[in-house]
Structure formats: structure tokens, C-alpha cells
Amino acid sequence: MYKNLTSYIIPAIFMAGLYLIYMLVLRTGPLPALLFASLPVLGICMAGVFRQQIAFYAFFILNYLISGISRYIEMKIGMIMLGLTIGLVVLAFLKNIFHPYDWKRSRSFLVLIWLIWFIYCLFELFNPTAVTEAWLIAINGYALFSLISAILIPVFFARYKDLQWLLILWAFLSLLAAAKGYWQRNHGFDAAELRWLFVGGGARTHIIYSGIRYFSFFTDAANYGISMALSMTVFGIIGFYVRPLWIKLLFWGTTIAAFYGMMISGTRSAVVIPIVGTIVYLILCRNLRHILIGGSLFIVALFLLTQTTIGNSNQYIRRMRTTFDQQDASFQVRLINKKKLSGYLQEKPFGIGLGLNGGRAERFKVDTPLAKIPPDSTHTATWIDTGIIGLCLYFTLLFLILLKASYTTVFVIRNKKLRGIMIAFIAGISGVLVAAYASDVTTYPNGIIMSVLYAFLFTIPYYDKESVPQQTTA
User: Which of 89, 243, 337, 366 is a good FRET partner for 55, with 20 to 30 A between their CA atoms?
Assistant: First the structure.
């Protein structure tokens, strides 16, 4: 079947390529056409030389830094990341020519789940208010990368050591983000950051009554705080399970640095991530000593935040405490916006189309009151774009993913180290999903990081079966 399919696909690609070369010659001249014609040869050469993990590491690094780069160089981040995502697929196809992958690894429950969600998002193209350009910009973050990562990561990262190096890379990037935040707080903002604050309007939400909210090289402080809280939760838990000592110290050092970054971001919803992560960890770890110690520390911390004023002299602790204040003005505004949305969306069960929430519809000349109400969070944005049917489907699929992964972690995974990593990923994901009620958690780099974590929840069991990580000095 595969050979029969290939016999049709390859000639189709060849004919499409010839047509594009012909059109380039007519419209732009022979030189651009020649450069385009050389791309397949270049791609095959790269596929033969470079390991797929290196390409993914480069993609991961760029995903983490591209928001900061865009502050200095104007670029369309969404289109660039969409192109690179497709590039990973092309690389996998070309690499498969030289070293065929074990595609059986990609036949997972997660691929089925994300395929269902992708099909729903595909049908959003037929929404009466949908705009194709907006859909193309939004689809990668909504569904495409999640599906592609679920297919490619199990075959790209065939060994535990590949995952370990990705975690080390993520830790260093988190340290870099925390260091940039420290520099902003102690040495001030550079010219591009000041322009964003005072010309671009960032000061309205970042220089406020409670102090300055720092954003490192992220799009804003909320995005920065969410990312740091996720790193803090994941690496804080993994540090208990990994060896050798230098990796353990690196991960715990990252935890401390990420906690600092989360605090100076002033992002209240980010505080929810380690709280929810701790609860999930205590449920899944099934270790009485950890439950007693962790549960006691959790109760004490929650008591200090909600029932006392200890530390109120510190602006970050004072702002963090407002996370639990239901009378907070910002929280009340969110409730008012959600009531307005509820009324409008009763007539639009499928939403208004991907990529049109939060005023984006004005760019595409779509006149609807739904697009003028700020969504304030990822879940609300999904509600606006895909409707109540899409939101319910999305929550159901997420629940099934976490339920399946939790069952595998508790009852299937035998290796203690791998079980700890699985728990850490589930804890981090759960925390972010709760925080998504109040913040946008899909902005780069967080959306892609979340998709990667989902994919590894269904890749790690292969490491356990093959006993790859049984060595204590992985």
C-alpha cells in the first residue's frame, strides 16, 4: 500500500514543482527559478547529513527566542513558524529515504485525538465569518503543530538520551530567560524594549500601580510568567528523579531561576501552575513521604498567601496574593467580558472562525461584536473562534489525553526515572491548562512547548519498554 501511494505522490510533487518553476521563470526570471529548482537537491543533501534531532533542537531554540528577535527585526512570526513546521515534515520525508523510520511508534492514541481536533478546525474554514488568511495564521498554533509533533517526536526521539538533551536545552533557555529578566530589573530596558513600552503601548499593562512587570525576551510579562512557571514546575519535579548530579543541580537551579522570573513578571495567573502542579504530583507519585512533606509545605504556603499579610512589603508577593482575591478589579472585568461573550455566542455555536478573536477581525474587515471583546485567556479565545461546541470538544480531548497519560504513568511505567518525568510533564500541563482560564498560554514559545510535552507523554512508554534508561548515568 505504501509503495502504491508513493507511486502517485512522487509524480504529483514532480509535476507541481515543474509548474512552479515555469511560473517563476515567467514572473521573476531564471535566477529565482534556478534557486527554487535547487531546493530539493539541497534538502536531500541536508537530510543525508544532519540528524533529525539537531533540526528539532534548532526549531526548539528558535521557537523560544523568536518573540524576542521580533522586537528588533520586524517579521511575521506565525508564518515563519508555520513554514518551519512544514519544513520538519519535509525533512522527515527526505530523511526517511536514507533511513526509514519505525512509523509504528506514530500510531498512538494522541495522534487520533489531535487528528479529531485538526479535522474540526479544518471545518472551521466553512464558518460563514471565517477568513482563510486568518485561518492559515492560526491553524499551526491551534492544531497543526500538535498533530505533527505527535507523529514526528516518537520517531525523531527514538532514545531516552535524545529527550534528556532536549530537557537540558530547555533548562538553559529558561536560565537565559531568567537572566534577561534579571538584567531588565537591575540595568533597565534597551532602546527596542523602551519603544515597545512607550510607543507600542506596553507601558499600560507593564508599568502599573504595583510596580514594573518585566518580560525578558518574551512578547509580554504574562507570556514570560507562564513560561517560567511551567519550567519551574517541570524541572522542580524532574530534579528528584534524574542523575547524574550535575543534571540534578542544573534542573533545580533552573527551578530557582524560573521562580525568580515568574515573580518579577507580576503574572498572577502563573502562580496557579506550580500550585496545580504540586497537587497533581502528590496524587500521581504514590509516595507517602513525598505526600506528607509536599502536602504540608503546600498547605503552609497556601495559608500564608490567603490568610496572612506576611511579605506584603514586597510588591511581587503583594501582587501574587491578589490571585486569590475574587473582588480584584481585573478579575471582575474578566467576568463582565465573559457575560457579554456568552450572550453573543448563543447564536454562534461554532464560533466566528480561527484567528479572529481579540480585535484581529478588524484586520480582515470582519464586523462582529465578538471580535471586539478582549478574550483575556486561551480558553476564551478558543470559545470565540470555535464556539461552545469546539470548546467542549477541546476540553473532552484534553481530558482523555491526561487520563490516558496518568493511567500509563501510574500503572504501566516501571522505570522510576521515566515515571518521574511523566508526572512532571502531566503536572506542568495541568497547571498551564488551569492558568489558561485567565491568560493566553499559546503564544510562542509556550504553545509549541506544550505540544512537545503532550507528544512525549506518549513517547516515553517506548523508552520504558526498551529499557533504554535503566543505566543510572543516562
Answer: 243
